[in-house]
């Protein structure tokens, strides 16, 4: 057992799977000699060689396209996009080819690739470096979308993503890369995909969140506990496909739900979760579902990020409002 932060756990998972499976290789901008812009691939080229840790040109569409071709031919590429703001050129390949490979070939080919990218705001990066586009990928059939919330979860989920026979978009919350460490056992054991994780049990309300919002939600849960409000916290982890059964069981128990996400409010994943709750657990609700989200504007620069990202105060206020009927 070793204390690792999230970026170190990503590195450990990549190294573990590359050692276990010769078909796993990495490609991306500056991931080799430089070890990646956040050092997630630090030391891997020296260990596994230039043929398996490949520095590419600045061409995100090309990176994704090469990865699709490699995957179709039996390799298991893990492609890194430096920031999610640069991920949009990959959507042509991910939507038109990666997500459709199994269906298009009637099962003769699959596309076992992972598209990794730092994700989200909170590090005062320039424009196009702090976005949360998970809903864009989650909308497309054939793609899995996974977002870890802690080092141990990142390690196990990334292993599972690399072993999955179909394409996975793996978004890593940049703000959590070095925020804290926790015990991570580098044992090659994966965590289940398509499954929510129960972070905290409670009786009064359910908070559903993912990624960098989980630490903020856990802080809110502690603040609410001191006020006599006992909340249950669910980490969605796999945005697509959604494990609604876990969420519905919790909502049926507590009768109240707040959904927290860093992406803009309109047409976000939170709206899908709220709709599912309305369709399948309406009569269990004691109050309308509430969402605490970013605003429907471009991610602002520098200190304005604090006002943009859902805060402890906004989350606590939403839960208190549910409990008080205001």
From TrEMBL:
InterPro entries assigned to the protein according to its UniProt record, in alphabetical order: THDP-binding, Transketo_C/PFOR_II, Transketolase-like_Pyr-bd, Transketolase_C
Gene Ontology MF terms: oxidoreductase activity
Position of the signal peptide: none
Chain ranges of the Transketolase-like pyrimidine-binding domain: 4-179
One Pfam family recorded for the sequence: Transketolase_C
The keyword Transferase is assigned to this record: no
Keywords, in A-Z order: Oxidoreductase, Thiamine pyrophosphate
Gene3D superfamilies referenced in this protein's UniProt entry, alphabetically: 3.40.50.920, 3.40.50.970
SUPFAM superfamilies per UniProt: Thiamin diphosphate-binding fold (THDP-binding), TK C-terminal domain-like
Cofactors demanded by this protein: thiamine diphosphate
Keyword Oxidoreductase among record annotations: yes
Domain of life: Bacteria
Protein name: 2-oxoisovalerate dehydrogenase subunit beta
Organism this protein belongs to: Methylocystis echinoides
């Amino acid at each position: 057992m070793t204390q690792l932060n999230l970026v170190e756990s990503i590195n450990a998972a990549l190294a573990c799977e590359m050692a276990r499976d010769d078909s796993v290789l990495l490609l991306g901008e500056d991931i080799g000699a430089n070890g990646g812009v956040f050092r997630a691939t630090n030391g891997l080229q020296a260990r596994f060689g230039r043929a398996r840790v490949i520095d590419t040109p600045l061409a995100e569409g090309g990176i994704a396209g090469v990865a699709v071709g490699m995957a179709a031919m039996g390799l298991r590429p893990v492609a890194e996009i430096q920031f999610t703001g640069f991920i949009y050129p990959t959507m042509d390949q991910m939507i038109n080819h990666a997500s459709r490979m199994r269906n298009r070939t009637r099962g003769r080919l699959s596309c076992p690739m992972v598209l990794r990218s730092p994700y989200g705001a909170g590090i005062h990066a320039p424009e196009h470096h702090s976005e949360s586009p998970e809903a864009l990928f989650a909308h497309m059939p054939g793609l899995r979308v996974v977002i870890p919330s802690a080092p141990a979860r990142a390690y196990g989920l990334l292993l599972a993503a690399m072993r999955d026979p179909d394409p996975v978009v793996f978004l890593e919350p940049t703000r959590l890369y070095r925020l804290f460490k926790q015990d991570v056992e580098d044992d090659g054991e994966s965590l289940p995909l398509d499954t929510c994780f129960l972070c905290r049990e409670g009786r009064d309300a359910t908070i559903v969140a993912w990624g960098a919002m989980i630490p903020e939600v856990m802080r809110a849960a502690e603040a609410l506990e001191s006020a006599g409000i006992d909340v249950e916290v669910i980490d969605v982890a796999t945005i697509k496909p959604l494990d609604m059964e876990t969420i519905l069981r919790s909502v049926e128990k507590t009768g109240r739900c707040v959904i927290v996400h860093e992406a803009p409010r309109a047409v976000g994943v939170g709206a899908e979760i709220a709709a599912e709750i309305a369709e399948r657990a309406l009569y269990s609700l004691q109050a309308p579902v509430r969402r605490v989200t970013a605003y429907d504007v471009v991610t602002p620069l520098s200190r304005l990020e604090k006002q943009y990202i859902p805060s402890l105060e906004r989350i606590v206020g939403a839960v208190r409002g549910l409990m008080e009927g205001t």
